[in-house]
Design goal:
The chain has two helices and two strands; from the N terminus they run αβαβ. The longest helix is centred in the N-terminal third of the chain and has 10 residues. One of its GO terms (cellular component) is plasma membrane. This is Copine C-terminal domain-containing protein.
Length: 66
């Protein structure tokens, strides 16, 4: 998870976005954390993401939407 956070913080300087789709009924708390909606994502060294580039979507919330 530390390496993933670091990679996302570094990628936040680039013109890109990351979309994570959660499939199944697992606990997606870690993916919600990476989403950065609740707070600014920081790497394990404390560096802050320049912008929120991660969007997490749990598929189960939309599975029955037409």
């Amino acid at each position: 998870m530390d390496e993933t956070r670091h990679a996302i913080v570094q990628a936040s300087k680039l013109p890109m976005s990351i979309i994570i789709i959660g499939v199944g009924n697992a606990d997606f708390a870690a993916m919600e954390f990476l989403d950065g909606d609740a707070s600014v994502l920081r790497s394990n060294t404390g560096e802050e993401a320049v912008r929120d580039i991660v969007q997490f979507v749990p598929f189960r919330d939309f599975r029955n939407v037409s």
